[in-house]
Amino acid sequence: MTVPELLSSSERNLSFKDLIEIGSVEAARERIIQKEIETVIRKNHSEQVSWLESKLKMTLTKGLDIWPNFIEICERRNLLTHTGGIISEQYLKTCANHGCNVDKVVICETIAINGKYYHDAVGVILEFGMKLVQVIWRKLLSEDIQQANMQLNGFSYRLITRRRYKLAAKMLNFGLHEMKKHGTEATRKMMVVNYANAEKLGGNIGLSRKILDREDWSASTDNYRICVAAVKDEIEDVVSLMPRVVEANAMDIASFREWPVFETVRSDPRFVETSERVFGEKLLAEREGTENPDSGAGTEVDEEQTETSSSSALTNQTTIH
After folding, report:
1. Domain coverage including residue 38
2. Which pTM value belongs to this model?
């Protein structure tokens, strides 16, 4: 257990008979932990979060705009599991208590799940889960801030490769502006570039430029500068920097084929010609344009291919994706 002192306030009791059978303080501690876990997992999700807040002495839902949506998803899951989807008074009461809009929901009707609801629900669960992990991780293991930031950046990058641009932008904004510590400057800059790119690919081109223009990139290495230029669609800068980053072994052809920062410049003839001249082989874009899943429509994505690309790109943490 990382922080055993969290158990110091536990009101769990063991009988004298239990203590004799257990035989040691360490074994008694494990028994108490097990009892605590069994009790917590029987609670509803709101109670579980409240339990975490009391143990960690911090607020976990303040300012969390998706909290009502999270509660509604959990309650809808309960309906589907226990009532076959028939709306109950308990569903309405719990949702109303947590700020969910249930004005048009009628008791005893059957609730439905369509493609958009499922898509949105996945986004809420991903966002809530990662934010919860990040906040608790940084609270309990402050020395791991850099590792936490790298994981958040990697998570957001994978969202971009899956074209979940709005969620990726939201997570990166959370890491950059809601978290007080950011680890190394290199990781922070990677997050800035990915944030700007997520906004751009999501259609917010003006905001994307503002994000990048708030930073001073003049002293940055070429691998940052080429990514910034690509996000800004400054193709001349991209092609002039390409031979230098390749010569420095900062990027290979897979970087230019797969990284989302090159999404909109990848089809430019100047980009293609320079790449083929530098690498001596064809530049074959591996991802074709598909409908933006942020719209809520169903979109097929090759998960295995995406994971391979993500893992490869994340191997060198000095690069930007």
Report:
1. 4-42
2. 0.80
